[in-house]
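Anyone able to model this chain together with iron/sulfur cluster?
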Amino acid sequence: MDKTTFKPRMPLGRLDRDLLERMAQVVREYDIPVVRATAGQRLLLAGIQPGDWEAVAAALGGPEAACPHYVQACPGQPACSFGLADSLGLGAELETMLAGMDLPAKVKAGVSACPRSCGESLVRDLGLVGRSSGWSLYFGGNAGARPRVGDLLANKLSTQEALGLAGRVLAFYQAQGKPRERTARFVERMGLDAVREAVL
Ligand code: SF4
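re: yes, here you go
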């Protein structure tokens, strides 16, 4: 674990007043030189001095608050006129599910309320896209050094069906994934048919 940085859990990029105040206090008290917004809608504290990390982590919810997984979601209905679904509602439930999971590697999830996909759903480990017929769920996307568009697992899902399928595919990945194997490489190794057979 890198003990010069800390990224507290911030569901869907939301920061309440209490966490904001605690972060400001920690940055001042431990003279942390860098605070940066990440692509995953979180705030990264960087340049923490050796020996300060445990105290910084404790002040911000403990080491478990630095969850490796995250969910990004577009604003969706009613903020965006293109929205076809409640991306923030589904994203919040997905974030709660992911926060407690011990998975082979970090999982990035993207939730978009329409096919324009502002939540970058197709290049995330787990992607949800809202359509007029319901949610589409994608798995195994990645935007990294070896980019991969996620595979469509199912269409026309209700919110509860989408969450259920997300839980099943994550459980399969949890059980069959190798340590540090991201979902893109996992799907390539297992084969899409095996993933579909296990979760659909
Ligand atoms: S994905 Fe669609 S609903 Fe979401 S912000 Fe983009 S255009 Fe709006």
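The mean pLDDT is 95.
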